[in-house]
Design brief:
By secondary structure, the protein is mainly alpha-helical. The chain has three domains: 143 residues, Four Helix Bundle (Hemerythrin (Met), subunit A) (Up-down Bundle); 105 residues, Helix Hairpins, CATH 1.10.287.70; 31 residues, no CATH class. 66% of the residues lie in helices and 5% in strands. It has a three-stranded antiparallel sheet with strand order 1-2-3. A hairpin with an 8-residue loop joins strand 2 and strand 3. Helix 8 crosses helix 9. The longest helix is centred in the last third of the chain and has 49 residues. The C terminus is likely disordered.
Amino acid sequence: MKKFLEKYKRAQEKMFHTLETTDTPTKLTKFINLFILALIVINTVLIVVETFNIPEYMFVILGWVELVSVIIFSGEYLLRLWIAPLHRPKMNPWLARLRWMITPMAIIDLLAVLPFFIPASGVDLRVLRGLRLLRIFRLFKIGRYSDSINAIARVVKNKASQLLSAVFVLGIFMVIISVVMYSVETEAQPGVFANAFDAWWWAINTLSTVGYGDVYPITVIGRILNGVISLLGIGLIAIPTGIISAGFIENARERREAKLKEELRARAESNCCCPSCGGDIKFSVSNLEDEKDTNLIPKIE
């Protein structure tokens, strides 16, 4: 029994490092990541293909691809559920698995396969076929295997408070101009600006510079107000864009500094020879913990 538990623990740890470790990925880890990524892309393309008028035999092929994909995605989900306790070693294994199941990525993994199993369970509710549209969530699984998409998630998370503040201010501004435009245009166009919601639709079209042309002012004051709002809209829409751009710059700088610190620590632990005198050079790293001040001080002995 003891040997069995030891083998079980080793197999669990090996699977954990294969599926979760990203610092030094093995060839097997890279192959699995690329394979899952390719499978996600294929399934996403098939969702689009199914919307066209295709021959019957194509549906048979798509059905087999769907079955194989669900088996693979289900196996991946179960394996990640199995190794979930290693994320929280001090927690009860079953509680750790439960905590993992409610994480965003685990929920997306479950939604990727759930629409297949619910209709196949014999439930006679045709409305459940709409759940198959949830297969589009497989596209979000790419985030697990793409560092670039993970960088986007980190930026949005770090700038969430600023983005929410900008959206809140923009929403208040839209409500104000909607009420003002309604007051100005409702007498001239009672059918077009019947209420503040119609004016709000005009505000969205104007601030986003879409301009469908279905709702627009005809009075002099309304047109002047429309011109001013159009110019202000360019700057207001640019605020969230600027926040996200600044976040990407900060994220790139932090990753560059972290990489530099790792290189400096590695060099500080090793000695090398001076090309001039041949003496040993010992590197000492100063202020590595300060993100804004990283120095490498060589000492020749």
